[in-house]
User: Which sequence fits this backbone?
């Protein structure tokens, strides 16, 4: 009995000695584990996707710093830097030749052909965002004119590469391409369609307003038999979620979503009639309407 007690005391004593020696290591390890747990919660990813999420966040912060300086740079200096092969300068120069920026940052005159040329240079320099934006422009050109001179193979490659590297706009464009490809087959390719829906939901979750609008419409219509990566059903008809998606897109100044919300609150199909909300969203639509869109105001009925 005495020998057993001595053994227990020896083990306890040795354990206490090791604890004293390693207390800082244990404390640091606990702090590190807690920080990793909180980081996974913040980025909404698993442990495997955490390094990529942190790298992407750091890259976005660096791009913001570079973008701010390039937005304020003299146009001639920026063009010289872009012509020198600097991919991010090429991207910002292209962006400043479009009408997507506030007037004080634009380089007159707006020229989409010049912008696309510099977007392509930046994409060839492996700038992910440039690939996504250029693919978006080309997809819009094809939607307006199916015979537009667009390299479809390059469009799909840029969209897929941007999507694979987690760019939200790239995921939206690649999702649109996959959905169009799935629906063009008879019968429809359900596997491609599901992948397209997942990409749209991913882009909407990152705040891409066109994806939010499309997801909103899908929630209003409802889709059956599609699941997310975990096997949970997605895009089941849900008017509240559809309207919430439209509202989030509208708050990002999406003109079509504002118009759609006005229609929803004027009708009685997806939400109770609410004249004040319909009028409010109509006013917002007038504020964010593109210049080439004419809105007619009808007088109130007597």
Assistant:
């Amino acid at each position: 009995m005495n020998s057993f007690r001595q053994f227990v005391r020896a083990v306890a004593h040795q354990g206490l000695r090791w604890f004293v020696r390693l207390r800082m290591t244990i404390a640091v390890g606990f702090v590190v584990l807690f920080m990793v747990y909180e980081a996974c919660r913040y980025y909404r990813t698993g442990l495997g996707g955490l390094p990529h999420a942190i790298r992407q966040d750091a890259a976005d912060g660096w791009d913001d710093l570079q973008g701010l300086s390039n937005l304020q740079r003299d146009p001639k200096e920026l063009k010289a830097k872009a012509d020198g092969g600097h991919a991010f300068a090429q991207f910002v120069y292209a962006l400043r030749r479009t009408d997507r920026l506030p007037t004080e940052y634009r380089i007159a005159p707006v020229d989409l052909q010049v912008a696309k040329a510099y977007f392509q240079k930046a994409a060839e320099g492996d700038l992910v965002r440039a690939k996504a934006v250029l693919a978006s422009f080309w997809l819009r050109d094809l939607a307006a004119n199916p015979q537009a001179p667009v390299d479809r193979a390059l469009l799909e490659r840029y969209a897929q590469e941007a999507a694979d590297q987690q760019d939200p706009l790239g995921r939206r464009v690649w999702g649109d391409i996959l959905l169009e490809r799935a629906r063009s087959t008879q019968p429809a390719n359900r596997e491609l369609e599901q992948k397209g829906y997942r990409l749209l939901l991913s882009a909407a979750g990152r705040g891409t307003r066109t994806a939010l609008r499309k997801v909103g419409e899908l929630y209003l219509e409802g889709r059956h038999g599609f699941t997310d990566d975990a096997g949970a059903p997605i895009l089941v008809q849900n008017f509240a979620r559809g309207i919430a998606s439209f509202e989030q897109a509208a708050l990002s100044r999406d003109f079509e979503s504002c118009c759609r919300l006005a229609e929803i609150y004027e009708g009685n199909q997806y939400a109770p009639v609410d004249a004040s909300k319909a009028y409010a969203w109509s006013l917002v639509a007038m504020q964010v309407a593109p210049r080439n869109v004419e809105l007619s105001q009808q007088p109130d009925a007597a």
